Amino acid sequence: MTLGILRTDLAASPVSPLAAAEDLLRRGWRLSSLPLDSRARRPLDGVALLQAHPVFGALAPAQIKQLARFAHPRRIARGTALFVKGDPGTALFALVSGTVKIRVPSIDGREATFNLLHAGEIFGEIALLDGEPRSADAIAVTDCELVVIERRDFLNFVQGEPKVAMKLIELLCARLRVAGAREEDVVFLNLPTRLARLLLRLIEENAAAADKNKLSITQHEISEILGTTRESVNKHLQIWARRKVIALKRGTISVLAPRALAALVSGDDD
Predict the structure, then answer these.
(1) CA gap 180, 108 in Å, rounded
(2) Residue partners of 26: CB distance under 8 A and separation at least 6
(3) Is 261 in contact with 199 (CB distance < 8 Å)?
(4) DSSP characters for 192-236?
(5) Is the pTM here over 0.85, yes or no?
(6) Which of 100, 180, 203, 235 has its CA 20 to 30 A from that of 120?
(7) Residue 25's closest CA among 57, 1, 54, 61?
(8) What is the pLDDT of residues 71-98, one digit of tens each?
(9) Of 18, 11, 75, 69, whose CA–CA distance to 43 is shortest?
């Protein structure tokens, strides 16, 4: 059964969506295979999501209400592609919860991960502003909640809101600085130092989590971000695990001694 047939089954069912989903489960569907929007969950409040967002939350209540008229709340499941390289840039995305990976695939099947985005971040702004095709893929690493704003609506809105325009300029400048810093890292730093810096940065970005030192990331994803092989990443992680600097479990890395990683980055590690 394809996703299109699944959606048709749900829409055509005379019973509630939850009962229809339960019927599909009895017919062999796993809940994780269903679209996230088809699950029985609370509806998303566009105004509340915008108010909680670092960029849009700075607007006046009347402006947030205006923006909410064409801001579409959306839930997506882990593994969903929001867009792929070459797609038209028709929308801006504001991440409310979850993690999204920005990547570029190569012809031979390899991938380069440019960034891991977390709650409060905006993405898709480059193609939105210049009208050119998407320059990378955006893939949900976890289940996510987002606010989606169409290009036409957003450009009309931002023309009268210089505060939002300035926030976007700041965002673009920050990402240029990050890209430049990563190029410097590749040229001047060895892999252990780059790996330590990445783990420390991920801890900082994970500050809102209950255990910020527990990172939900695979060694494969780390190798994509650092532009190296999984084997090389694993070699250094295993050394640190034996030294009790980190703890490794499937799909997660717990940083037990961040000071030891910081010492390696600063050159004070013996």
Answers:
(1) 26
(2) none
(3) yes
(4) HHHHHHHHHHHHHHTTTSTTTTEE---HHHHHHHHTS-HHHHHHH
(5) no
(6) 180
(7) 1
(8) 888 999 999 999 999 999 899 898 888 8
(9) 75
